[in-house]
């Protein structure tokens, strides 16, 4: 009976959805905690902010009048778009808010990709940069970095030589944490045909934006006579991952209008709109988060290097580490010690893991666990 039904579902399903790889959110913290009773849980798998929620957002959430939950939220997110517009010196008509920036990635794919369209992205990549295009039956071309994780411009040039509908990159990169600097990004954009939509996912912008070589992406793109969109989020440096708010800064209002056509009207709930607005005003939290990352990152990269691991030169609050052994096995051993990381599955990176930087004690516990796991597996 169930088998008949599932066969019927498969028969109805679009072939591109049937073949779709699953997004890997990492192990479930509750399950891990249950299996490791007594050991404190260390969740280093999702790039959440180790400093937590922006205090200004917490205050708004505490004062929230729950009666308001009976009303629909503002479908246009006007207050938030106006505040963002002022901060970014951008007209609100060029701004769109998403239920997380993931939602905006989805809308971009829904609105722009036909079956067979080519999307050029990087490898290793953020899962949804591949999954959403494949959902639309688009073709995904992935460009790998050099073995030292630096940008392989020649490979980008050849990937972008043919027709492509969309260039989709994260800068800083998830999972590498590395950046395309001003020059590399300018060259990349120059290599893309003028009818290629440029999507620059800056989920970790706040961590790298103070670095002198990090690109002024809006200046760079505004000089381009072509459509583009930059995606940012409240999930990382602002610490609001649980509320789901991201935003897009678009080349022009027509791009926002195009995405509005495929957007569910009330995609940002009321609490999230208000908390994001408050968080935006809490730049102290952002600065603290950036400083914390910089402070714990350097010693951790050094310690991992001294222990013989190759680590990508991260500008963010997470590290991509080549363990030299099967990452899934490393993952299992760390899970047994109540530590959750992300084991990479992409071809060519099966020995790599990504970990979110935490407090120094926790980073040290992770390093000890990693060394133990790798020694046992070698
Ligand atoms: C975390 C992340 C996102 C998702 O952010 P949300 O706003 O929480 O949806 C998008 N892109 C990249 C590259 C990320 O790492």
TrEMBL record:
Q: What cofactors does the UniProt entry give for this protein? A: pyridoxal 5'-phosphate
- UniProt keyword list: Aminotransferase, Pyridoxal phosphate, Transferase
What domain of life is recorded for the organism? Bacteria
- Any one Gene Ontology molecular-function term assigned to this protein's record: transaminase activity
Domain (Aminotransferase class I/classII large) spans 41-362
UniProt entry tagged with the keyword Coiled coil: no
A Pfam family that this protein carries is: Aminotran_1_2
Return the similarity comment: Belongs to the class-II pyridoxal-phosphate-dependent aminotransferase family. Histidinol-phosphate aminotransferase subfamily.
* Identification of the protein by name: Aminotransferase class I/II-fold pyridoxal phosphate-dependent enzyme
Species, as recorded: Pseudomonas sessilinigenes
Upper lineage is:
Bacteria, Pseudomonadati, Pseudomonadota, Gammaproteobacteria, Pseudomonadales
């Amino acid at each position: 009976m169930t088998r008949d039904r599932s066969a019927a579902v498969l028969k109805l399903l679009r072939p591109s959805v049937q073949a779709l790889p699953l997004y890997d959110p990492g192990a479930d913290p509750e399950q891990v905690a249950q299996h490791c009773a007594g050991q404190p849980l260390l969740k280093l798998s999702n790039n959440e902010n180790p400093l937590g929620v922006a205090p200004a957002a917490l205050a708004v959430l505490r004062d929230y009048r729950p009666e308001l939950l009976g009303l629909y939220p503002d479908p246009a997110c006007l207050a938030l778009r106006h505040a963002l517009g002022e901060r970014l010196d951008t007209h609100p008509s060029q701004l769109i808010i998403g239920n997380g920036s993931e939602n905006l990635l989805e809308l971009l794919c829904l609105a722009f990709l036909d079956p067979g369209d080519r999307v050029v992205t990087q490898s290793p990549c953020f899962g949804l940069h591949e999954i959403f295009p494949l959902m639309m039956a688009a073709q995904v071309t992935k460009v790998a970095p050099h073995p030292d994780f630096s940008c392989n411009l020649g490979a980008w040039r050849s990937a972008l030589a043919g027709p492509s509908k969309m260039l989709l990159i994260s800068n800083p990169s998830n999972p590498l944490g590395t950046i395309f600097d001003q020059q590399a990004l300018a060259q990349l954009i120059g290599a893309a045909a003028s009818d290629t939509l440029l999507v620059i996912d800056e989920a970790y912008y706040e961590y790298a934006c103070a670095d002198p070589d990090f690109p002024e992406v809006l200046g760079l793109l505004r000089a381009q006579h072509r459509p583009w969109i930059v995606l940012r989020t409240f999930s990382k440096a602002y610490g609001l991952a649980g509320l789901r708010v991201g935003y897009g800064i678009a080349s022009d209002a027509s791009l926002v209008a195009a995405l509005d056509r495929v957007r569910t009207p009330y995609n940002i709930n009321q609490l999230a709109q208000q908390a994001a607005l408050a968080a935006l005003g809490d730049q102290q939290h952002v600065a603290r988060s950036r400083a914390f990352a910089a402070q714990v990152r350097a010693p951790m990269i050094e310690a991992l290097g001294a222990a013989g691991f190759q680590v990508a030169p991260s500008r963010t609050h997470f590290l991509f580490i080549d363990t030299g052994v099967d990452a899934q096995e490393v993952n299992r051993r760390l899970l047994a010690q109540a530590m959750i990381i992300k084991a990479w599955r992409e071809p060519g990176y099966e020995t790599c893991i990504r970990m979110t930087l935490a407090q120094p004690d926790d980073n040290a516990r992770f390093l000890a666990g990693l060394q133990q796991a790798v020694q046992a597996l070698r």
